UniProtKB/TrEMBL annotation, chains A, B:
Keyword Nucleotidyltransferase attributed: yes
Name of this protein: Mannose-1-phosphate guanylyltransferase
Domain of life of the source: Bacteria
Span of the signal peptide: none
Keywords: Nucleotidyltransferase, Transferase
Record-level Gene Ontology MF annotations: nucleotidyltransferase activity
Annotated MannoseP isomerase/GMP-like beta-helix domain residues: 329-368
Amino acid sequence: MTPDLHVIIPAGGAGTRLWPLSRRARPKFLLDLTGSGRTLLQATIDRLSPRAASMTIVTGAAHRDAVAAQLPEFAGARSDRELVIEPSGRDSMPAIGLATAIVRERHGADALVGSFAADHVIARPDLFLEAVDAACAAARRGYVTTIGITPTEASTAYGYIHAGEALEAEGTPPVPAGESGTRGEPRARAVSEFVEKPDAATARRYVADGYLWNAGMFVMRAGVLMGHLERLHPALAAGLTRIARSWDTPSRDRELARTWPTLTAIAIDHAIAEPVAAHGGVAVAPADLDLGWTDLGDFDALAELAGPGAEGAAVRVGAPGTAVFDGGSGQTVALVGVEDLVVVTTPDAVLVTRRSAAQDVKKVVDRLVQAGSAGLV
Amino acid sequence: MTPDLHVIIPAGGAGTRLWPLSRRARPKFLLDLTGSGRTLLQATIDRLSPRAASMTIVTGAAHRDAVAAQLPEFAGARSDRELVIEPSGRDSMPAIGLATAIVRERHGADALVGSFAADHVIARPDLFLEAVDAACAAARRGYVTTIGITPTEASTAYGYIHAGEALEAEGTPPVPAGESGTRGEPRARAVSEFVEKPDAATARRYVADGYLWNAGMFVMRAGVLMGHLERLHPALAAGLTRIARSWDTPSRDRELARTWPTLTAIAIDHAIAEPVAAHGGVAVAPADLDLGWTDLGDFDALAELAGPGAEGAAVRVGAPGTAVFDGGSGQTVALVGVEDLVVVTTPDAVLVTRRSAAQDVKKVVDRLVQAGSAGLV
């Protein structure tokens, strides 16, 4: 298969739910949280390389040096491995839109672009590429196409995708009889709607009804995304197009500095996915149940991923369900008579959280900021 | 009141239940665990000074320098502030017995000796001295006299004293009518027996029946203790007497090196208190209920003592009943969605224990020793 996907990786986010491992200056995507020897960003690049005609990482100036150090091929002048530095954070739509507009200028409106988070984990890259291929097939037909994650539990941590009928086969292989059903399959379906993170009862209903998790991955033709944007957010589209036209010219920096601050800060989900889905323009390629996807949204997810391997240097006296992460402190951790905890040690901070309360770790960061302890966040 | 008590402080014990604050090389008595600015040993000396004709600290060679640094008056040649270094640990009876035998040599058999732990905490030194005075009065009459702690709860962490009838008043002030009862009073009673740490149901019965906690403090005439020892453990008594007779002579070191290793290792409770009580020779002076005594036997006790003041540099998101102790790591500790925990940070180790499981912290030390991590204990 000829790599024909222009991969866009918006790399941002504070990752405050993984404090104190992640910090403002060292967000989640820069960390090797899986112990694989590759950071989440490096693993994202590795995973997508087989399909990538080009790759663009969009990040803030604060992370330029760290990204370039982790991925030296993005540090040079190669236009197929490019680092786009946002002058300021404007949420995901301007970041993805700028990279898309640049692709349209360079490769034409029919070029496929795909946007993927920099800080997710996928256990089975082979199954992921199958889903990407299915998404590309639907994208070529004009759909804004997302990759839907087949739920493994009734999680309340993710938004869900209500998928409708399968798209008529056209250029995608027909589904063999008997293979549709609970397992993900590489055939795209129309998206009825995107729904927000549900409560527990609603989550159970969604899973029973075959809804998929929304992992925020989108594949489409560059011209399709820009067309929707021109219709729904014309000022944003015009600004992005103006910057993109200057990109490979001497006026890039001036145009970026002048126009970027005027762009609306908005997420691609609200700007494009939700309104376009309401009019039948969004498809979803369900990934295989065995994909092994997680966004590592909190320490409970990280502990789940790490499993018994997270025992680190810990000494346990009756401590079931506990996970310990050493963020460079080198301390031996002893756990006595506790359960379902995560303990994280770093040189300047120690976190002890109940796994079921792990989403509240972000409140610690809020408190530290309020208390003027910004050096710790 | 003329200070006429020869105070003996056996300062030993591994204190493994307070790991990682306490270590082999830095046992509990050398630490300022109350935040008072004085270590437990220093506070013990402070508390007893008003009644002390002399004071002797008996400790191991490993702690000589630390004790001398904390208590410079014990580092010199003063015979009334003396540091006795045990060649090896032989439990409490040889340590207390040697200091007692030395007092008998120097001051005669009628001199009062009192043995007190080096690592207990007492909130009200004034009430403690009242109990010491009552104990001295009974001791002068020939009793081996202990100070009984009036229980504040049905603890399973302490041995109990079954006290019998009040001794007939003789040299002690009579009890004013109506003042006996649940509160401790400065009048000694006969001891029926010492009982071991009970289970919870037995502890409740003991408290209901007016039993007292055994804090391991003993006051008696030097000749009374040595007399019991000569009868019950003649070889031990003979060895101690031989060393004591050489103590203020040039042969001290030779005699100590030759005789000490032959002495039976035994606790004073088993050697003297229990058998003598069985024959009516032990009295108890109950301390006032408000004494505020604790042996700080584990982190639950330390958390209880520290109260809300133990919050340290912690950031709490819904963490009731938690205490944090910084043993020199300087780390900020964040607690999220947990309860009834103690967290201790030191430069090389972090402990997280459920308060009700705090007695099991010693198992961590066992594990570390087994794992060859002796540098951490």
